[in-house]
Prior knowledge:
- The chain is about 35% helix and about 15% strand.
- Strands 3-2-1-4-5-6-7 form a seven-stranded parallel beta sheet, with helices on both faces.
- It is of the alpha/beta class.
- It has helices at about 10-20, 50-65, 90-115, 135-155, 195-205, and strands spanning about 1-5, 25-30, 40-45, 70-75, 120-125, 160-170, 220.
- It is globular and about 45 Å long.
- Helix 3 packs parallel to helix 4.
Amino acid sequence: MRALVTGxxxxxxxxxxxxxxxxxWQVLGWDLADAAIGHDLFTxxxxxxxxxxxxxxxxxxMFDAGTPQAFVHAAGVLRVAPLGELQPADGDxxxxxxxxxxxxxxxxxxxxxxxxxxxxxxxxxSRVTHGMPGRSQYAAxxxxxxxxxxxxxxxxxxxxxxxxxxxxxxxxxxxxTDPQRAGSAPRVPxxxxxxxxxxxxxxxxxxxxxxxxxxxxxxxxxxGGASLPK
Length: 230
């Protein structure tokens, strides 16, 4: 089994890649940063997910080895700003990395999966899509993933292909220490700690498994109690 995973240089993407490798998957890791994983079954590929032409080249190279059985879009970027200070360039890069890259890849991968009547797609969303001050552009680009996933799931459900979103609350990744988010501290979930990347990886791996064949079009939160009524 072969999986394409984006954002494998660190954080959630790296955790998912390592989990899949441990489960025996071959993993193709797309990231602009240097690979952080050394494994016989891991193939890193330098891809700028803001560059559509580069994505297309990488897609063609991937299909040289056949259709992947899974696609996980874990790459992410966060820029924060309140109203009055929003920057169009920040919104553009988040939209390109989150929604546009996912769309470009899915547009090639999902039809191929349907032709083989098997495939799994997991998009990494965010609890921030419910709204948070200073995160409007990020929230919008992540919320788009839910709409995309549900729309795609409806198109491919009869072909043995599933599409789901996993939406973590604040997760212990390098994104939390990115200078671009200075002055915007993460909200620690009610469990009293940050979500761990491995906890997200466990759920993603399950959604890629045969046991999850009946789960599709869902946005599943790993919230540490953040979504509980108060």
